[in-house]
Amino acid sequence: MNYEKVYAVVMAGGKGERFWPQSRLSHPKQLLRLIGNLTLIEQTVERFDNMLQPDHIFVITNQDYVAPMRSLLPQLPAENIIGEPVGRDTGPCVALAAALVRAKAQSDDAVMVMLPADHVIRDTPALLQVIRDSVDVATTGNIVTIGINPTFPSTGYGYIHCGEKQSYDLSTSFYRSKGFREKPETATAERFLAEKCYRWNSGMFIWSVATVCNAFKQHAPGLAVLTDKLQAAVVAGKLASRLAEEYEKCEKISIDYAVMEKVDNVIVAESTFDWDDVGSWTALRNQIRPDSH
């Protein structure tokens, strides 16, 4: 497949307070070298080395982290690392991403791969295969989210209820989504695990610009307006000033609440790769073997 119309957008705006004292306001989690010699943001971007050109990768972060991220990621064009003036959760972040991609691609057919900056994934080839297959499914007007096979009854993750398996001629298994579930209590999480038809919500989404913008128009009109305004600002070369103005007044809302829980065209891609959301010092126990101390 030709990936000239595929863009990756890394969401890296969090502060990672749970990694205090290593993480500070001036030095967030995604800039820490928690696993290996590279920071989490470097690892996330590096996974796309063999799939996308550097100018097809965007990083959306806090405006205070733009300079250190541009230093860490010199392979990316400086203008592809954008700082949000204030945190407004993932809804406005996706609207900004859609504006950037639509302006860059000059096409509503462009496909966006949205992913967080703080996941630990070691099997990059398997991840990229799932993403490639998901891009194929997304080009037909579907919203694709990657579901992680749960390995224990976690109460810290949201879940996706998987329904009928879809008959795509692809190596990845896809299921029709039957809805999202909030972070459950222990008994509910144990039931989800036993029923084997629930996946952890990874926060990784694949959709075309047209698909997500149509979802905005139907379910989150404020985000549709925000996308249009920010795209005009990108084209006019005035994004920085307009971003501050628009973010100051836009609603703080997650993409899950704004869109994902309301649309009926969600397809779940089943992960075939290892995955861990390193959200705290405690979570590092999954990645680092302790010594006698």
Question: Which helices and strands occur, and which strands form pairs?
Answer:
Layout lengths: L5 E7 L27 H7 L10 E6 L3 H7 L8 E4 L5 H16 L5 E6 L2 E2 L3 H15 L4 E6 L10 E7 L8 E8 L4 H10 L2 E11 H11 L1 H16 L2 H11 L5 H6 L5 E5 L5 E2 L16
Parallel strand pairs: 1-2, 1-4, 2-3, 6-10
Antiparallel strand pairs: 4-9, 5-11, 6-9, 7-8, 7-9, 8-10
**Order of helical and strand elements:** EHEHEHEEHEEEHEHHHHEE
How would you classify the helix and strand content by structural class? alpha/beta
Largest sheet: 5 strands, mixed, barrel
Shape: globular
Helix percentage range: 25-40%
By DSSP, the count of extended strands is 11
Distance between the termini: 50 Å
Can you tell me the residue ranges where pLDDT is under 50 for at least 5 consecutive residues? 16-25, 280-284
Strand content: 15-25%
Placed side by side, the strands forming the largest sheet appear as 6-9-7-8-10
Helix count from the secondary structure assignment: 9
Rg computed from alpha carbons, rounded to a whole number of angstroms: 18 Å
Describe this structure as you would to a colleague.
- It is built from nine helices and eleven strands.
- The strands form two sheets. Strands 6-9-7-8-10 form a five-stranded mixed beta barrel.
- It has helices at 40-46, 66-72, 90-105, 124-138, 186-195, 209-219, 221-236, 239-249, 255-260; strands at residues 6-12, 57-62, 81-84, 111-116, 119-120, 143-148, 159-165, 174-181, 198-208, 266-270, 276-277.
- Mean pLDDT is 90; it is low at 16-25 and 280-284.
- It is globular, with a radius of gyration of 18 Å.
